[in-house]
Amino acid sequence: MTLHVERLMGPESLDALSVEWESLHMQLSPRTPYTSPLWNRLWWRHLSDQRTWVRDEFFVHVVRDGHGALVAVAPLMLTHRPATGLLRLRELQFFGADSNVTEIRGVVCGPEDHDAVIDALRAHFQTQQHEWHRLLWSGIREQSRARMLNDGDDSVVWRRKSVDYYLPLPSSWEEMKLKLSRNMKEALRKCYNSLRRAGHTFTVRVVSEPHEAAAALENLIQLHKARASASDMVPHPDAFESLTVREFFTDYALRMAGRNQLRIFQLEIAGEVVAARAAFVFGDEMYLAHSGYRPEWGKYSVMTTLVAETFKWAIANQISGVNLSTGTDASKTRWKPTEVVFWEGTQKSSSYMGRLVPLAFDNLARATLHMSSLMWLLPHVRRHHR
Q1: What is the bridge-based pairing of β-strands 134-141 and 89-94?
Q2: Based on the number of CB atoms within 10 Å of its own CB, is 179 exposed (0-12), middle (13-18) or buried (19 or more)?
């Protein structure tokens, strides 16, 4: 297959690409929000950086076959540190440089095209090394990484892998339970019985209507923050600590509600929402996103109950599979999902600055973080001394 790599000239070009990209996104499986044109357009609008110490330049590329059909989208940006100047470092990376929101970054393409697309992009960017000093490869599938290791190119340093957990659903909840381990079956029995023994009854509400979505999202965010701030439980990062991230996620979720693709599952006890989880529906697949619950209800395993009820709803609504998201922990692995492995690595250019990349980028990243902290702290110090 002959592939051609083209660069898009600006964010407005994403609108023209939207129909083709959406069609490509809906052909993927398992699907995630991160491969959709909506997520990426909003990510650039809300989260691309335009500060003195760091500036993101739009650098999106598409890959087409010999007939002009869209095969892949590479939502890339060229990050300059500092924003201007002859000595600025330039890192080529994918959209998604955020904290705990974009879980999978990388090329948007079908698994069957992944190797060919990565090869085409690597060849293209090898001829563009004057543009960048370091290239951060993300979302590289296991087989592509193996090929990149075996082709003699030692300029890619593989740093970490992440695992996406996808759970194909059977035709009934009873069939699903039969495949679970004895320990998981016991955990399910206990979480339901603990509420019953304490005299609590619960209801599950599924919010999908746009006019109800904003309030349900705000409630979910507060529950998420409450769980993250609990000091006597396993540490849990607050994905919504940043106001900008919170605004981005809310914007995306509300737009998905307008498309009838948002579901917020709420576990209510005595009229109070004690646990909630957001999910996005893509055709016959569903992606489980952020969750939260009141820490005082943790002893009843309310999140396990809510996840089980979510699976029941999905099966009843002909959902063929549920993506449990990334992160290796028992809350996912105990459901016996399929693992999809992605790798992240860095490649330096052959330029003089590229050869200095490891030391230069590490030192500059620390300096940028320090300067950003000082810039944030300065107004607070001034107010304190007034």
Answers
A1: parallel
A2: exposed
315 touches 169 (CB < 8 A)? yes
**Ordered DSSP codes for 32-77:** -GGGSHHHHHHHHHHH--BSSS-EEEE--EEEEETT--EEEEE-EE
Whether residues 128 and 197 share a domain: the answer is no
For the chain, the maximum distance between any two Cα atoms, rounded to a whole number of angstroms, is 70
What domain range includes position 309? 170-319
pLDDT tens for each residue of 136-179: 999 999 888 877 876 665 678 898 999 999 999 999 999 999 99
Specify whether 350 is located in the same domain as 222.
no
Distance CA(342)–CA(344), nearest Å, equals 7
- Other C-beta atoms closer than 10 Å to the C-beta of 66 total 9
Q: What is the pLDDT of residues 77-100, one digit of tens each?
A: 999 999 888 788 999 999 999 978
Tokens of 288: 């489980």
For residue 102, give the 3-state DSSP assignment. coil
Q: Read off the pLDDT of residues 101-118 as tens digits, 9 standing for 90 and up.
A: 999 999 999 999 999 999
DSSP track, 161-208: EEEEEEEE--SSHHHHHHTS-HHHHHHHHHHHHHHHHTT--EEEEEE-
CATH code assigned at 266: 3.40.630.30
The Cα-based distances of 50 to 41, 45, 87, 136, 335 in angstroms read: 16, 11, 18, 19, 42
